[in-house]
Amino acid sequence: MEISILLLTYNHERHVRKALDSIIMQEINVPYEIIILDDASTDDTPKILWEYKKKHPEKIRLYIRKMNSGHPTKNGYFLFSKAKGNYFATIEGDDYWTDKQKIQKQYDFLERHKEYSACVTDLTVVNEQGAEIEMEVYKKKDNHVYTLEDFRSLSEPGMTITLFARNYFDKDAYRIIYQADKMMGDITSYMLMLLKGDIYQLDEKTAAYRYVCKAGESNFNSIHFSNKYRNYIQTRYWIKLENYMRQYQKDFEFLPMSGVIKNTALQYPIMPVLHLLMQSENRGKYIVQYFIYKFLLDSDYLLEKTEKCAGQNWRKFLKRKKPIVLFGAGAAAEEYMDKYAWKGNIFFLVDNSEKKQNTSMKGYLVKKPEEVLKYKNKVDVLITNKDHEKEIGKQLLKMGINNYYSYCSMQSARLRNKLARKLLGYYDKRVV
Question: Looking at residue 56, what DSSP letter applies?
């Protein structure tokens, strides 16, 4: 057996025929097999799979779970363990191949170039209905060669729908696929391949990747991006992969880890994050960075836009008793309300967008900017729109409002931030 084609399905009845047809149409001049695993679909996916199995009994090996595993990466490991081919290709039930020579071209390439562990191709991104959408899902390299050094940046060489690789399956070594995370396994697979050799990026488009991200769907993107703990889970995943790589390269470290730690420090409580960082073999450095981000860097600051006052402490501002009018009904306003609405000092919001006017945000009315004039000396105006801060400031001055404030999340102009950056630079110059 030369090639194993691995197909994973779950509730893909709308798209699985297209995926199967794109496999069957492949023109391959060496022995190959199609291994399919269905993770206990609740729709008609198993019925469709049996239909194709009966048509191609000599090619298809079909496994249908009676109970959902709840662990997609274990399913991936299972498929790898069943592959008899010297090479394998991967596909999921909602994606499909567009070139009937895809597998043969990649097989011929790896046969000619023994130095590469795998190759990927370009692709088209489509939406749920199959219409093409403009979206960058991976970055092409000028020399087309993706190495372990590129892997340190946590980018991917391509999408697994286009992957064709040598079968290096090892029962023990490959357990990291499901041990690292139960949902994310693509980058783990690439990591294992890169330990055997570089990955080559072919130019031509041979597949279509279906991107769906909406509430109620069972695909990875829909589940992942609706989870408010996704960044915590992602950090845990990187740490496990980094620990694994340090077995092969003692000082291996992912380049973006400082930014990852900063995000978790700002988003999540102390104890769960510390417990997470303690699992890292690089725990000393990461815990120091965490405490700097959590306690030394001032993530919120306030500038009072007056001629007399150069700046004002954020915490002092929060103690002011005047009601606050937020100017700007966007992401910054939403963030401010999530953090400080409990203080009960928000009066209402104003916005220049007519679409937002006369609506509400988190229970607060959004009005026209002119409404502020009715309460001119009784409220504090807080600009919650960093991109248009200057324009809004000029607008307020024209309205006769000379004193206003600006909420700038994730920034600071304080001395202690300079100290924090120096400390961070001491531990990791890339941060600075």
Answer: -
| Count of other CB atoms within 10 angstroms of residue 92 | 22
Please tell me what DSSP assigns to residue 51.
H
Q: What is the largest CA-CA distance in the chain?
A: 84
Domains in the chain and their CATH numbers?
3-216 (3.90.550.10), 227-297 (no CATH), 300-409 (3.40.50.720)
Contact of 86 with 110, CB cutoff 8 Å? no
| pTM to 2 decimal places | 0.70
E strands of 10-93, at which residues?
Answer: 32-38, 60-64, 87-92
Q: How far apart are CA 296 and CA 420, in angstroms?
A: 6
* Residue carrying the six token digits 């749920």: 128
* φ, ψ dihedrals at 423, nearest 5°: -65, -45
Q: What is the DSSP letter of 239?
A: H
Q: 389 falls in which pLDDT band (50, 70, 90)? A: confident
User: How far are the Cα atoms of 6, 42, 214, 321 from residue 62, in angstroms, in the given order?
Assistant: 10, 17, 30, 68
Q: Does the pLDDT value for residue 432 go beyond 60?
A: no
